[in-house]
Specification:
Blueprint (H helix, E strand, L loop, with lengths): L1 H31 L8 H10 L4 H14 L5 H17 L2 H18 L7 H20 L3 H21 L4 H15 L3 H9 L6 H17 L5 H15 L3 H9 L9 H13 L3 H9 L11 H13 L4 H12 L6 H14 L3 H13 L6 H12 L5 H11 L3 H8 L10 H17 L3 H13 L9 H16 L2 H11 L8 H16 L1
């Protein structure tokens, strides 16, 4: 009897303890099962690898993070970065459709996150923004707009709720700057759709993020530096500032392929031709990196600017291996030009024939190449040599190429226009502004507003820039307005945009 009393008691005791321990253990599991946002050490390491474009390594690190903390939502954001970079860089349409399905799955998971966290709207917005930008690559303009609009709405709501959340400011700074750069005649449209911003406010926001990065360990610091460089280059038209930024020793590390791409791109746009070749040839390589075919295009272009025949091989390799749609026509055009400057007229025509049927006409460079091919007009070899040398920043060599010529040396009106324009641009870069204006004005007088060439329009634009710099606002306004009167050339959109921006600056 006593045993009967003792043992059931002990059994009840141990059974109760098992229940209590089970409940305590599962309570911890349930607490840990709550979705949350944590930039763990794994996430920080993965982010660093993503911005070096070691994407497979980054994914492996994220898989380890997901196993150790399956309810951390930050890996979803970082995986989206990986897919975005793959699509944006490769321009592979099949890959785009394959990876876009993952976007929807991520959004479903992210929307279950804790709404009281500043990361909730931010992560949702970043995924929307990534795919809005990706969709632009494939001309899905309505879908792209919808993604960007959702991203903007989320980021603005998050800014009001969490004004000091610097992650949010990183993306808003870019969006505000881009909106601010939209020409005035289109501003009513974007403002009606709820977008607001200015170049000044956007760049001020970006500077706040940059300052935060200087004082704190911010995982997206590499992205911030890249965005700052491209905003300076393309929206502020501050080539010197962009080049100074990417030339700094603190911009990237030797194993950073994305920083290498940014530096090479800025060098190409700002006439640092030898730097392009040096940067691309010194880039980190290997199976660990996601390949950037555009770097091969940039090096090929830089060699063409030197009239170096090695450029043809690189450009042809780019054409044959790139799965995307942009810069294919432009690459064929540069192959044709290189052949023409070497005296190979048949080779020029062969390349221009391939150009007509290959690639797309989505970007300005490809549209200009297609127009040249369809026109059937063969460039004058010496004018072309001068143009290529000029574009590479070899101004003295370009001037020497044209030193034996005058306007009357040419018979075709297009060649006369181009000669005066080229001489104007060369003297402008050599800081001989009086001579530059003389040639630009000759070009303008010889052109009509219906002329299919961009020479007169850009001559007006360059005179306006010089007048603005010297403080002659009245003259600058005159030539900015005149630059917008030429509507039939390939670079109309770019030149008109720069002219409107100039007029806007002169209002202040």
């Amino acid at each position: 009897m006593p045993l009967a009393i003792v043992y059931p008691g002990r059994g009840t005791y141990f059974h109760s303890m098992r229940i209590i321990l089970f409940l305590l253990f599962n309570a911890q599991l349930l607490a840990g099962a709550t979705p949350h946002y944590s930039f763990s050490e794994n996430c920080k390491r993965a982010t660093a690898e993503i911005f070096k474009l070691r994407l497979d390594l980054a994914r492996d690190i994220l898989e380890r993070e997901k196993k150790s903390d399956p309810d951390n939502l930050i890996p979803l954001l970082l995986e989206d970065y990986i897919d975005f970079f793959k699509v944006y860089i490769s321009e592979d349409e099949l890959l785009y459709f394959e990876l876009s399905d993952r976007r929807n799955e991520r959004l479903k998971k992210l929307i279950r996150g804790p709404k009281e966290s500043p990361f909730y709207r931010y992560c949702l917005a970043e995924v929307q923004l990534h795919w809005g930008i990706a969709r632009l690559k494939f001309e899905e303009y309505i879908g792209a707009f919808m993604n960007v609009k959702k991203a903007y709405t989320l980021l603005e709501a998050n800014r009001k709720a969490f004004p000091d959340f610097v992650y949010n400011l990183k993306s808003l700074a870019v969006m505000h700057t881009v909106v601010g750069a939209i020409p005035n005649e289109y501003r009513w449209g974007v403002e009606k759709l709820g977008f607001e911003g200015s170049v000044e406010s956007g760049m001020a926001e970006m500077e706040k993020v940059v300052e935060y990065c200087r004082q704190n360990d911010f995982p997206f610091h590499p992205e911030v530096k890249m965005l700052q460089a491209f905003l300076k280059l393309h929206l502020l038209k501050d080539g010197a500032g962009a080049w100074a930024l990417v030339s700094d020793t603190g911009f990237g590390t030797p194993d950073d392929l994305l920083a290498c791409f940014t530096r090479a791109s800025v060098a190409s746009y700002t006439g640092h031709n030898e730097a392009v070749i040096r940067i691309v040839e010194g880039r980190p390589e290997g199976s660990a990196y996601f390949d950037i075919p555009f770097l091969e295009y940039l090096e090929g272009l830089a060699l063409v600017h030197k009239l170096d025949p090695r450029g043809e091989k690189l450009l042809l390799h780019f054409i044959q291996n790139f799965k995307g749609r942009n810069y294919i026509k432009s690459a064929w055009q540069k192959v044709a030009w290189l052949r023409l400057t070497a005296g190979d007229l048949k080779g020029y025509h062969d390349a221009m024939s391939r150009l007509r049927d290959d690639g797309f006409r989505q970007i300005e460079e490809d549209r200009a190449a297609q127009e040249e091919a369809e026109s059937g007009v063969v460039p004058h070899p010496e004018l072309l040599r001068a143009r290529l040398l000029f574009d590479g920043g070899y101004y003295e060599e370009a001037l020497q190429t044209l030193s034996a010529y005058q306007s009357f040396s040419f018979t075709l009106p297009a060649q006369i226009l181009e000669f005066n324009y080229r001489m104007g641009r060369i003297h402008q870069k050599l800081r001989q502004e009086a001579k530059a204006i003389l040639y630009f004005e000759r070009c303008i007088r010889a052109s009509s507003q219906n002329c299919p060439f961009y020479f007169a329009a850009n001559a007006c634009l360059q005179i306006a820039f010089m007048a603005e710099k010297s403080g002659d606002s009245e003259k600058a306004r005159k030539y900015f307005r005149q630059a917008m009167q030429y509507h039939n050339h390939a670079y109309r959109q770019s030149i008109e945009s720069q002219a409107r921006a100039g007029l806007e600056r002169l209002k202040s």
